[in-house]
Amino acid sequence: MKKSTKKASWKFRLHEIIYEADTPKGKLFDVILLVAIIASIILVMLESVENFDAKYHNALYVGEWIITILFSFEYILRIISIKKPFKYIFSFYGIIDFLSTIPIYISFIFAGSQGLVALRALRLLRVFRILKLARYIGASNKLLLALKASRAKIAVFLFFVLIVCIILGTVMYMIEGAENGFTNIPKSIYWAIVTLTTVGFGDIAPQTPLGQLIASVIMILGYSIIAIPTGIVSSEMTKTANEHHTNTQSCPNCLKDNHKENATFCYNCGSILNE
Amino acid sequence: MKKSTKKASWKFRLHEIIYEADTPKGKLFDVILLVAIIASIILVMLESVENFDAKYHNALYVGEWIITILFSFEYILRIISIKKPFKYIFSFYGIIDFLSTIPIYISFIFAGSQGLVALRALRLLRVFRILKLARYIGASNKLLLALKASRAKIAVFLFFVLIVCIILGTVMYMIEGAENGFTNIPKSIYWAIVTLTTVGFGDIAPQTPLGQLIASVIMILGYSIIAIPTGIVSSEMTKTANEHHTNTQSCPNCLKDNHKENATFCYNCGSILNE
Amino acid sequence: MKKSTKKASWKFRLHEIIYEADTPKGKLFDVILLVAIIASIILVMLESVENFDAKYHNALYVGEWIITILFSFEYILRIISIKKPFKYIFSFYGIIDFLSTIPIYISFIFAGSQGLVALRALRLLRVFRILKLARYIGASNKLLLALKASRAKIAVFLFFVLIVCIILGTVMYMIEGAENGFTNIPKSIYWAIVTLTTVGFGDIAPQTPLGQLIASVIMILGYSIIAIPTGIVSSEMTKTANEHHTNTQSCPNCLKDNHKENATFCYNCGSILNE
Amino acid sequence: MKKSTKKASWKFRLHEIIYEADTPKGKLFDVILLVAIIASIILVMLESVENFDAKYHNALYVGEWIITILFSFEYILRIISIKKPFKYIFSFYGIIDFLSTIPIYISFIFAGSQGLVALRALRLLRVFRILKLARYIGASNKLLLALKASRAKIAVFLFFVLIVCIILGTVMYMIEGAENGFTNIPKSIYWAIVTLTTVGFGDIAPQTPLGQLIASVIMILGYSIIAIPTGIVSSEMTKTANEHHTNTQSCPNCLKDNHKENATFCYNCGSILNE
User: Fold this and answer.
1) Of D88, D110, D136, which closes a domain?
2) Per residue in B83-121, pLDDT tens?
3) Residue numbers of the domain that contains D43
4) Could you give the CA distance from residue C218 to residue C123 in angstroms, rounded to a whole number?
5) What's the gap in Å between the CA of A200 and the closest CA on chain B?
6) Are D167 and D218 contained in the same domain?
7) Domain annotation covers residue D251
8) Which parts of the sequence belong to the Ion transport domain (chains A, B, C, D) (predicted)?
9) Model ipTM?
10) Same-domain pairing of A192 and A109
C-alpha cells in the first residue's frame, strides 16, 4: 500500500481509519464498532426482559446513550471524511447508520409520551443496527453469486409453493372447517405453509381422517420438494466450484484467460502457456 | 415480427392481443388478467373471514361479480379468436378458464338454497383460478425437465417412504395403543408420516420409553433419507447444468456438436468453428 | 425368449408364470398378487378402526381368510415350482411369504384365547406382507447402489448425531430438570433427537432461558448438519450419473471399455473406435 | 509389521497393545474398552431413571466403581507406556481420559454432601466418556476434510441465519407481544430460530393474522435457505469425489501428476506411465 510515504491530509487519514482496515488504527476502529454493535443488540434484548429492566433500568439507559453518542460520532465522521457525502448518506449503509442513531433522540424529545406504541416500536428499530455488521461480511463472496445466479429458479419454486399452499389450504378449510381450528382460508393457508415447510407447530392439526390423509400428502410433498431449492443451489455451486479449477494466467499470445489449471497449450490459439 | 405490415382480420388482431404478449395491447391484457386473478383469490380468502364478510359482504359480492363477468368475457374472447375452439375448450387452460366462471352462476341460480354445503364447496372451487397463473410461468423451464427426468427415482423413493410408514405406524399402534393417542392403524400411519417427514405436529406423541425409542429411529431415518430426493434432483440438475456449457453449433468439417461455449477450434478434428 | 417352442413340463410352465412376468399369464399372476397384498394391508388397517370393525367384523373376517388362503396357495406353488425349494424357503422372500400366511392360522388354533396380547400382536404382523411388494421394485436400481457406496460415511454421520444427542440430552437434563419435563436422561436424549432432526413435537420444550439457548444451538446444528448426508448422497449420485456419460462400446484393439460418449480414439491404446 | 522379530521391552509391548489395534491383544483391549464405554453411558442413563435407580441402586453403584477402576487403570497404563507422558496428558484424549475417571472419586470424597447440585452435575459429566469413542472413528476421514474446506462459507451462513432471527424475532415481539407468549426479545428470537430451522415446537405460536403472515415468511425462508449449507457441502464433496478419480503417480518423463486412475499414457506428454 505504501500510503505512509504520501503526504496525506487529516481527512485522508480519517478516511483510511474509518473506511479501511489495513492499518492498526483502522483495525482498532473496526473492533470498537463491532463491540458497540453487539453491545447495542444485547441492550435492546435485555431491555425487553421485564425482570431485568426493572432492576437495571438506569444502567441500560446510560449504556444506550453511550452507544447512541458513539454511533452519532461515527456517522458524522463518516460524512466528514468522505469526498461525496451525499452518496454515502443515501447509500444502504448510510441509511442504516442514520437509523441507528435517530430512534433514541426522538424518544428523548417525546419523552413525556414515552408510553406510546409508536415510540416503543421506534426504540425496537434499534435492532436493525445489526445490519451494520453486514459491512464485515463483504458483498463479493461466492455464496451470494451462486444465489444470485439461481434467483429466477428459486422465485419459480417459491411461486409454486405458494400456489400449492393456497389450493391445499382452501381444500383443508372445506374439509376440516372452523370447528377443528381451520376458522378461515388465510388461517388454513398459514397451516398449509406450516405443514409443507415441515415446521409443524401443532397449534392447528387436522382431526378428520380425510383431513389427515390430505395433510399426509402435503407433508410428503413438502418433504420431497425441498429437494428442488437444494438441487438448484447445489448445482449452481458445483458449477461455480468447477470454474474455480481454471487458473488466473492469460495466454501470452492471444491474452485469453480461464485456462484449465494444468493446461500447457492455450485452448484458443494453441500457443504455449508460461508456467 | 413485422406483423403490422400484414393485413390482419379482427380475429387475428384479437388472437394477437389475447394469446401473445409482444404487443403493447397484449401486455396490457396480460396485466389486467394478472390483477384480476390475484384480486379474485384475495376475495375468496376475505369472504371466509367471518368478521370481514359480515362488514363488507356487499362489496365482496359486487367485486366477485365484476371478476366473474371479466373472466366470462375473457373465456368467450378466447373461444372466438382461436381457429380450433374445441381444442382450447378441452385443454387444461380451457377447463380452468371455464371453471373460473361457472361456480358463481350456479350459486346464483340456486340462490335460495345458498346454505347448502355443496354450493359452498363449489364457491370455494374459485380458488383454482390461481392455476390461470400457470400460463405466465411457461412449461418449458429446465426445472420441470430435471424433475421429469428424475420422476421414476422419486416414485421409488416415495413408495419406500410409504412402506416404512405403514410398517412403523403399525408397530407404534401395537406399542403405544389407543390410550396414548394411537387409536387405530391409519392414525398411527398418519403419525409416522408426520414424524418421518420431520413435521412433528405434536398432537400425538409417544409416551412409553419403547415408543420413544422407535420414534427416535423414525426421526433419524427421516432426517437421513431426505438426502435421497435431494441427491436425485441435485445430480439431475448438475447434469442439466453441465450440458448448458456446450453451445448448439456444429463443426463445418466433421459435423460434431457439443462444443464448449467459447471454443474456436473443433475438439474432434481441429477445424475452425464459425463464430 | 422363444420358450414356447420348447417342450416344457407343467413345473416349468408354473415357474414361468410365478417367477417371471413376460408372459400374459405371468403378468396376470403378478397383478392378482399385487391387488391381494394391497387389499390385505387395507384389511389390517380397517380392522384396527373400532367403529368400522364393529360394523363389518364378519366381512373383514371373511376377507382375511380369502387372502390368507390365496397367499398359502401362492406359497405352496412357489415351493413346488422351484428346483431348490429350501433355497427359496430360507430366502428373504420365502420367510416373508411364510409369515404372510401363518398368523391367521395360529390365531385360529388359539381362537378361545383371542384376547391375548401376543395373539393380537401376531395378527398385526400381517402388515409385513407389504414387504412382498419389494419384489416389484427390483434390487438392481441405481439408487440403492449410490446408497450402498455411501454406507460407511452415513454410518459415521449417524454415529456423530447420536453422540451429540447423548451429550446435549444429558446437559439439558442438568439444566431443565424433571420439573420442566426432562424427567430422566433417556427422555432428554429423546428430546434432543426430536430437536436435532427438526421434528419438534413440542410435548417437551425447554422453559429456562439457558435451556432455550442450548436448544437454539441444537436446532441450528441440526439445521446445518442435515447438509452432510445430503452432500454425501448428492456427490455419490453425481458420480454415478457422470459414469453414465461413458458409452458401452469397447475398443476393437485392446478391448477396454468406459470410453467417453463422443470419443473417436481409444483412451488406452489410441486405436480408432467403431462408430 | 514383523515386529515380533524385534526384541521389545515390556513398555513397547504395552504400547503396542494400548495404542495399536493390529495385534490380537490390541484388538481385545479395544473391544473391552469399547464395551466399558458403552456400559458406562448406559449406567449414567439408567441412574437418572428414578424407578430404576430406586430398585437397582446398589448394582448401579458397583458397576460404576468397576468401570471407574477400569478407566483409571487404562489411564495409568497409557501414561506409563508412552514416551512423552505429558504430551498425552494434555492432549484432547488425555483430558477426556482423565475426566472419565475423576468425577466418581470426588463424589466419593464429598460423599456426605452427595445431594449438592455441583456434585450431581459432576457425576453427569461422566457422559462425556462417550468422547472416548472418537478414537475409533479416526480424524483422517474425507467427511471432515470436506467440512473443514467449507468452514468459512458455513460460518457466513450461520451468521446470516442469526441476523435474520434477531431481526424477525424483534419484529414478532412488536407484533404479537407478551399476551401471545412472546414475553421478551430473547424468547422471540428463540421462537424465530425454532421456526426458521423448521423445528416448530408449538409451545409458542403466533395468534394475530399479521404475526402468522410474518411467520409464514420465516418458514418459507427457512425452507428455502436450508439449500445453502446443503449446496456448500454437496459441491465441496463432489469436488473431493472428483479428485478421487485421479491417482497419485506422476509421469516419469514430465513429472505431471493427477492422472486418471486407469490411464496408461501421460495426458501431458504422452509418455507411458509406470503401472
Assistant:
1) D136
2) 888 888 898 888 888 888 888 888 777 765 555 566 677
3) 2-136
4) 40
5) 5
6) yes
7) no
8) 27-239
9) 0.80
10) no
D218: left (phi over 0), alpha (psi -120 to 50) or beta: alpha
Distance of CA B172 to CAs A133, B178, B213, C26, C122, Å?
49, 10, 10, 37, 14
In a domain, A248, yes or no: no
Q: What share of chain C is helix, strand, coil (3-state, %, to 5)?
A: 75, 0, 25
Among A16-25, A264-273, B43-52, D62-71, where is mean pLDDT lowest? A264-273
The closest alpha carbon to B128, from C7, C45, A166, belongs to A166
Nine-digit cell string for B238: 448438475
Q: For testing the chain A interface, which of C230, C236, C237, C242 should be mutated: the one with the most A CBs within 10 Å? A: C230
**Chain D closest CA to B12's CA: distance in Å?**
43
Tally of domains in chain D: 2
pLDDT digit string (tens) for D148-163?
777 878 888 888 899 8
**B213 touches A at CB < 8 Å:** no
CATH number at residue D128: 1.20.120.350
Chain A, residues 119-178, CB within 8 A of chain B, namely 153, 156-157, 159-160, 163, 166-167, 170, 173-174
Among B115, B136, B157, the domain boundary falls at B136
Question: Rounded distance, CA A80 to CA A67, Å?
Answer: 20
Query: Looking at residue D208, which CATH number applies to its domain?
Result: 1.10.287.70
For residues C83 and C194, membership in a common domain is answered with no
Give the cell for residue B241.
447444468
For A100-122, what is each residue's pLDDT tens digit?
Answer: 888 888 877 776 555 556 667 77
Q: At D25, list the grid cell.
A: 491383544
Same domain for B209 and B124: no
Cβ(D72)–Cβ(D98) below 8 Å:
no
Residues C102 and C159 reside in one and the same domain:
no
Distance in Å from the first CA to the final CA of chain D? 25
Task: Take residue A147 and report the three cell numbers written for it.
Answer: 444465489
Inform me whether the pLDDT recorded for B3 exceeds 50.
no
Residue B170: name the closest of C195, A103, C111, C126 by CA.
C126
